[in-house]
Design brief:
The chain has one domain. The two termini are 36 Å apart. It is built from four helices and four strands; from the N terminus they run H-E-H-E-H-E-E-H. The strands form two sheets. It has a two-stranded antiparallel sheet with strand order 1-2. The chain is mostly helical.
């Protein structure tokens, strides 16, 4: 076999493995933010609208807003990533976003302090469910999980995070 073809095959294999690792890492981050896995608080919920609006996209950032409250976004993301990983042409990037107008208020504790309507849902401007925020905490933990998983798998991305 021609040396150039061997090099190309090796690079293609590593690219495929890296796309798999990144794709599963994005799913892991989405799950951490939505459900609060790994001992994290997750997206505060009242109606589940905020948690149901964390969307994953491939090679685009579709800043949609959904009225769904059943967290169908998790299943949609799994299907999208599985399709992207299986393509012969790997994606350039994945995006994870939430376009609800109040998502920053949930993360940064920007609710009125004291609360305008009664008590119990907020404290010091934050949701009582995530008084230190949730996205930034998940992102910090996620970065460590990605590095550990990548190293544990010899960089091949075969195990899910």
């Amino acid at each position: 076999m021609d040396f150039n073809i061997q090099i190309k095959n090796l690079l293609d294999k590593h690219l495929e493995n890296n796309v798999r690792v990144v794709g599963y890492a994005v799913l892991s981050l989405q799950r951490m933010i939505v459900d609060g896995t790994h001992g994290l608080p997750g997206t505060p919920y009242d109606t589940n609208a905020a948690a149901s609006n964390w969307f994953v996209d491939v090679d685009t950032a579709n800043y949609r807003v959904s009225d769904d409250t059943t967290r169908r976004n998790l299943g949609m993301a799994n299907a999208l990533i599985a399709t992207a990983i299986g393509q012969s042409n790997p994606p350039n990037y994945f995006s994870l976003h939430n376009s609800l107008p109040y998502i920053k208020t949930l993360e940064y504790g920007l609710y009125p302090n004291p609360p305008k309507k009664g008590t119990g849902k907020t404290i010091n401007g934050f949701s009582t469910q995530a008084p230190q925020g949730f996205f930034r905490i998940a992102l910090q933990k996620w970065e460590k999980l990605v590095i550990e998983t990548y190293q544990q798998n010899g960089g091949d991305g075969r195990r899910r995070i």
